[in-house]
C-alpha cells in the first residue's frame, strides 16, 4: 500500500496550506521548526558538540573485511568504526541498481584508502552507515558522480513535467560531456533551463574540489562537510508553500540572505529577522509541543488517546477510545477514533522523527470500507512527509505495518537519555519488592559474617513501609537472625536503591 492522494485533492489541500519555518539559534544549539497552518510538524536539532554527519564525505581506511556479512568496517576518525556494505560500493562496469553484488573481497581489501559518504548517523551502539555512491545536493539537483542514471523525484507527479526535466538534465550532462548522473529534486518542478544549468555548473565545481581535497588529505580526514542547519533548511525545505522563514540570529540571518541571493533568489524575500523580546519558539506553543512529543501518551480531541512504545527493533502505536463514546453505535465510534488517530499518528511520526519498522494497532473495525478509509487518511496525512515511507494493508491480526526511512536520530534520542533509576526499562521495583530484597540481604549477610547490628539505608517510601505494613515482618527477622536492625532514610536514594551496612 503506497498510494498518494489524487491530484485534485492534493491541489485543494496545497492551496489552503501555509508553511512557516522558525529558526532558533544559540551558541551551542540550533533548532528549526516547520509549521503547517500554525501547527508544528517537524523539528530539527543541531548541537555544536554533536553535529549530524549525514552527507559528510571522508577519506577512510578499511580496517576489517567480513565476507560472511558482505561488509567492511571503515575507520573515518569517529569513536566507532563505520559500516560499509558491498551493495554500497561503486563497481566499475556494474550498473548501480544491479542485483549481482560481487564478493566484498573483490571490492576492497584491508588497508585500502577509500572515499566514503555518511548516509546514516551513528545510532545507539551502531556506527555510521557509509556509501561510496557520492551524492552532492544543490537546490534543484543532486549530482551522482559515480552513477550514470537520471532520476526525477516521485513527488513530481505530472508525467509531462517529469519527462521535460529528465530530458533537460540529460541534454545538459551531454553538452558538458559528463559521464555522471543526477536526480531532479521536487523544488525543480517548473524550473527554467538556466536555473538547472547553473546548479549543474556549481555541482561540477564542487565535485572537482572534493576530489582534489581527498587526494591531498590524510586518512580519516573530513573532506567535505554539509551545510549548517539554517542553510540546509533554505536548500532543502523552502518551497513555494513557505510564506516566511523567521530566524532570531542576526549573523545567521545575514548568512542566509547571502546564500539565498547567490543560489535561491526566489527565497530571499521570505527570510526575516525576528527581533521581538518573546522567544521565537514560544510562538505557536512550539516549546510545549516539543515537550509533549516526548510523552508516551498522546491525547486525542475526541477523548481517545495514543500510546507510543519504542524498542530496539521497532516502534509500536496503540489506539484507544478512552472516554470517547460517540453518538451512534460502537462501530461508528471506533471508526471516528481511528480516523482522528491516523492524522495524529502521521504528525507524531514526523515530529518525533520515528523511523524503521512501525506497527500501528488501530481499534478493530468490522467493515472493510472503514479499514480502507483509515489507511487512505493515514497515507494522505503522510503525503508531505520528507522521509520515504511504505504502508501495508491491515494484517490478519488487525495491525498496520509500515516503514519510515531512518537517517538521523529520533527527537527522543537527541533530547533524552535513559532513566538512571530504571536504566531505560520504563519501570522500577515497588517499595514492597524492595523490602523483601532487604530482608533476603539481611539473612544472606547474617549467615556469612559475624556482627551485632545492621543498618538499612533506603528511600523514604521504603523506610515508611518497613515501619508500617512490614513492621511485623521486620521484627520477626530481627528475632530470627538475633541481630538488631536500624533504619535510616536516604533522601538521594531512588526507590529501588538500598544498602545493608553491618555494624
Report on this structure:
With about 500 residues, this protein is of the alpha+beta class. Helix content is about 30%, strand content about 25%. It is built from twelve helices and 24 strands. Strands 4, 5, 6, 7, 8 and 13 form a six-stranded antiparallel β-sheet that branches. Strand 7 and strand 8 form a beta hairpin. The longest helix has 24 residues. The protein is globular and about 95 Å long. The N terminus is likely disordered.
Question: How does the SSE layout of this entry go?
Answer:
Blueprint: H1 7-15, E1 19-26, E2 29-36, E3 39-47, E4 57-66, E5 71-75, E6 82-85, E7 113-120, E8 129-131, E9 136-137, E10 141-144, E11 150-152, H2 159-175, E12 181-184, H3 193-216, E13 221-224, H4 229-237, E14 242-247, H5 250-263, E15 271-273, H6 286-292, E16 297-299, E17 305-310, E18 314-320, H7 330-352, E19 356-361, H8 368-381, E20 389-394, E21 400-404, H9 411-415, H10 431-448, E22 453-458, H11 460-467, H12 471-481, E23 484-489, E24 498-502
Parallel strand pairs: 1-14, 11-12, 14-15, 18-19, 22-23
Antiparallel strand pairs: 1-2, 2-3, 4-5, 4-7, 4-13, 5-6, 7-8, 9-10, 10-12, 16-17, 17-18, 19-21, 20-21, 22-24
Amino acid at each position: 500500500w503506497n498510494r498518494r492522494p489524487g491530484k485534485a485533492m492534493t491541489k485543494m489541500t496545497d492551496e489552503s496550506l501555509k508553511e512557516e519555518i522558525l529558526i532558533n539559534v544559540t551558541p551551542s544549539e540550533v533548532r528549526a521548526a516547520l509549521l503547517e497552518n500554525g501547527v508544528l510538524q517537524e523539528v530539527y536539532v543541531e548541537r555544536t558538540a554533536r553535529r549530524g554527519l549525514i552527507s559528510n564525505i571522508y577519506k577512510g581506511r578499511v580496517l576489517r573485511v567480513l565476507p560472511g556479512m558482505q561488509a567492511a568496517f571503515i575507520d573515518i576518525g569517529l569513536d566507532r568504526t563505520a559500516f560499509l556494505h558491498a551493495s554500497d560500493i561503486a563497481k566499475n562496469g556494474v550498473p548501480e541498481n544491479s542485483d549481482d553484488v560481487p564478493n566484498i573481497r573483490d571490492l576492497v581489501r584491508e588497508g585500502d584508502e577509500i572515499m566514503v559518504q555518511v548516509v546514516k548517523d551513528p545510532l545507539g551502539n551502531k556506527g555510521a552507515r557509509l556509501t561510496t555512491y557520492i551524492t552532492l545536493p544543490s537546490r534543484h539537483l543532486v549530482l551522482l558522480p559515480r552513477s550514470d542514471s537520471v532520476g526525477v523525484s516521485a513527488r513530481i507527479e505530472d508525467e509531462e513535467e517529469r519527462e521535460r526535466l529528465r530530458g533537460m538534465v540529460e541534454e545538459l550532462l551531454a553538452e558538458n560531456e559528463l559521464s555522471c548522473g543526477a536526480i531532479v529534486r521536487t523544488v525543480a518542478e517548473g524550473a527554467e533551463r538556466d536555473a538547472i544549468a547553473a546548479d549543474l555548473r556549481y555541482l561540477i565545481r564542487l565535485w572537482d574540489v572534493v576530489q582534489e581535497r581527498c587526494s591531498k588529505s590524510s586518512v580519516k580526514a573530513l573532506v567535505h562537510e554539509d551545510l549548517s542547519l539554517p542553510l540546509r533548511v533554505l536548500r532543502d525545505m523552502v518551497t513555494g508553500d513557505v510564506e516566511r522563514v523567521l530566524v532570531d540570529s542576526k549573523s545567521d540571518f545575514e548568512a542566509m540572505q547571502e546564500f539565498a541571493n547567490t543560489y535561491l533568489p526566489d527565497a530571499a524575500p521570505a527570510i526575516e529577522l525576528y527581533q521581538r523580546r518573546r522567544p521565537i519558539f514560544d510562538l505557536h506553543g512550539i516549546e510545549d509541543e516539543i515537550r509533549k512529543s516526548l510523552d508516551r501518551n498522546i491525547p486525542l480531541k475526541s477523548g481517545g488517546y495514543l500510546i507510543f512504545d519504542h524498542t530496539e527493533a521497532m516502534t509500536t502505536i496503540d489506539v484507544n477510545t478512552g472516554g470517547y463514546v460517540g453518538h451512534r453505535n460502537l462501530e461508528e465510534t471506533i471508526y471516528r477514533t481511528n480516523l482522528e488517530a491516523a492524522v495524529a499518528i502521521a504528525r507524531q511520526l514526523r515530529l518525533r522523527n520515528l523511523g524503521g519498522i512501525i506497527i500501528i494497532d488501530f481499534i478493530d473495525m468490522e467493515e472493510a470500507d472503514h479499514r480502507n478509509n483509515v489507511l487512505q487518511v493515514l497515507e494522505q496525512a503522510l503525503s508531505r512527509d520528507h522521509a520515504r515511507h511504505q504502508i501495508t494493508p491491515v494484517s490478519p491480526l488487525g495491525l498496520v505495518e509500515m516503514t519510515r526511512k531512518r537517517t538521523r536520530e529520533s527527537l527522543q534520542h537527541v533530547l533524552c537519555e535513559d532513566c538512571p533509576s530504571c536504566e531505560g526499562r520504563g519501570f522500577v521495583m515497588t517499595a514492597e519488592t524492595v523490602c523483601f530484597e532487604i530482608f533476603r540481604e539481611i539473612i544472606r549477610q547474617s549467615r556469612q559474617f559475624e556482627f551485632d547490628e545492621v543498618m538499612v539505608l533506603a528511600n523514604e517510601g521504603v523506610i515508611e513501609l518497613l515501619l508500617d505494613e512490614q513492621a511485623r515482618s521486620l521484627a520477626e527477622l530481627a528475632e530470627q537472625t538475633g541481630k538488631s536492625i536500624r533504619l535510616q532514610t536516604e533522601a538521594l536514594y531512588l526507590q529501588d536503591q538500598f544498602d545493608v551496612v553491618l555494624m
